[in-house]
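Reminder to self: tokens first, then the designed residues, so the page reads top to bottom the way the pipeline ran.
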């Protein structure tokens, strides 16, 4: 992840100039180039496919948009672009921007967010945990397929880990899953998925 702008951007400017570009997000007025790699996209793509299959199998009114921004707080100049976001289609009528732009502002519209960890692992394990919890997103996955996160988050020795964060009251309860372990999702009870299933070949 690289901070690439010297000027401060407003949310509106970011949306106009970078809203359609999946490579960028905005954090406190600063443009961030998320620098995705091929392996990162492989994991994201395989995971989105598996989640989509589970959603369809359970006949839920949810979907995974091709591109979407989260504006976590109206008074903060931040626009997050998760690797995967699962939206509740029945809640979108209340979203003030959705009809004109793929921007989500209400936590109740979001069922699940997934971040695939890259070199900016600190953001995924700390800042986004706080932002997504405050927004009220019920489930947040941190997919650290290379084991980059700090020992405090993924244990020692460091190893590939999926951390499933379940919102309880206003905080996330975090459960790590390692290679070979079935990932337990409180939202998708019939999901049969291991980290091994989405790794690059």
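Designed residues (201 positions):
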């Amino acid at each position: 992840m690289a901070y690439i702008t010297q000027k401060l951007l407003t949310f509106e400017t970011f949306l106009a100039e970078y809203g359609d570009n999946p490579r960028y997000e905005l954090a406190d007025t600063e443009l961030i180039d998320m620098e995705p790699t091929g392996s990162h996209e492989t994991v994201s793509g395989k995971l989105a496919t598996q989640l989509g299959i589970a959603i369809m199998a359970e006949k839920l009114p949810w979907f995974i948009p091709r591109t979407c921004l989260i504006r976590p707080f109206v008074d903060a100049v931040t626009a997050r672009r998760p690797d995967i976001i699962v939206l509740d289609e029945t809640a979108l009528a209340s979203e003030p921007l959705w009809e004109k732009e793929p921007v989500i502002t209400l936590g109740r519209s979001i069922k699940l967010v997934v971040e695939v960890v890259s070199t900016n692992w600190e953001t995924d394990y700390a800042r986004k945990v706080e932002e997504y919890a405050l927004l009220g997103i019920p489930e947040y996955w941190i997919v650290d397929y290379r084991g980059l996160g700090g020992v405090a988050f993924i244990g020692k020795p460091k190893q590939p880990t999926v951390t499933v964060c379940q919102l309880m009251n206003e905080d996330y309860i975090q459960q790590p899953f390692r290679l070979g372990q079935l990932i337990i999702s409180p939202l998708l009870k019939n999901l049969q998925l291991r980290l091994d299933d989405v790794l690059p070949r």
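The CA atoms of residues 12 and 124 lie 24 Å apart.
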